[in-house]
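Let us work through a complete example step by step.
Step 1: write down the sequence.
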Amino acid sequence: MEMIDSTTTNQQYGSYPSPYLVAATDRYYNVASDYVEKQRKKLKKSSKPASRKNLRILITTYWDYPAVGGLQNYITTLKNELEKLGHHVDIVAPNQFPKNSKELKKKLVKETKQFYTNRYGCYNKKIVKENARLSRYEMILRTMDLENYDIFHAQDRFTANVIGRLNKEYNKPLLFTPHGFMTQRKLSLNLIERGSLEEAFYLSLDQIAIECSDRVIALCEAFRPSLKKIGARDHQITTVYTGIDNHFEPKSKTKNNKKVITCISRLRPRKGHKYLFDALASIESELDDVEVWIVGDGEMREELVKQVQELKLNNVTFLGERKDIPTLLSLSDIFVLPTTSDTLPISIIEAMFAEKPILTTNIGGIPEIIANHHTGLLVESGDSKQLAESLSLLLSDATLREALAQNARTFAEKNLCSVTMAEKIVGIYQSIRLRRESR
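Step 2: predict the structure and record it as tokens.
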């Protein structure tokens, strides 16, 4: 990406919060002003985009890339498949910014604190930090020449807001893929207090991300109601299921004749491992020929290890982070994910391609790909009794395991391949461009 002169960036655009975010906090503090109108600029619209088959695409993320995580895996897969189709893809992430941008961040924090203090007589530390990050991201992007891109594709509400502001100048197709349920989910989990300043601030971020996007690509239909609540229209939302590269080939079992139950997930509270262990304890008499592999790491490890020890589950092994997931799945007999809060976990899709019977919960977008007693078994989240009953059924019924596994792989091959995902997204890119060119 070509860099342009940035010597006057701070002076020209300012480091204060974006006008619509000030409007949100103004409403919270009951401050009347014309700040938004004063800051709104009529920027020059670029000419109609040049028509070309191979697109130049800018993917933006608010989180470090490359890094470990589902979002980063999604971005890598999308980039790789788009490039296989002949398109050019660049990715912008905070850890790619110049080293001296950390000093800019400190300056922005100081100035934003002062702005809020002058305006309201106080400031919220979390919102100051978020505003500083947003301002820094925008200022760095303003040093880049983005004119030659055909498509902007934001992978979160934060960069959708930043690109949305810049796009008043570039006038490019902007797409937004949310990877979580955003403010509404945090409210439902009591991570944000209702009626708080944080709710007003983050809800404004959500709404503007929708407002400035030509299209919202939802990872599953479960997103649709939440997106509509914050202003998205049905025709603005297109669901494209996450696709992965199918390199999962079922392999024969080793000489070990024990049945293997595998759970692949970060060790976090919402992944529900404690319910799995309670379920295993309740069917302990059925586990003489069973091994349980817990793959992944996280902040819950110490607590979960303690629970396993207290329940005397000697057949449970914590394998930690692993890079040989296809091999581990090929050696497994059952895949289980007892998650209590998720959208569309990649680990389930991997297990489908690996042709394994799947036991998981009916939350988020999971029921859209796991049909109960067809491509897997579904239970209520947080219900150890149901989990135990379903595990017992799978362990005792080889015919059911085989049927569920085959159905899961068939569905995955048809709907969840990375090339299918990329082709659908390119179709969306092209349709937006054609509509703009026809105006």
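Step 3: interpret the result. The domain at 9-243+420-437 is CATH 3.40.50.2000 (Rossmann fold).
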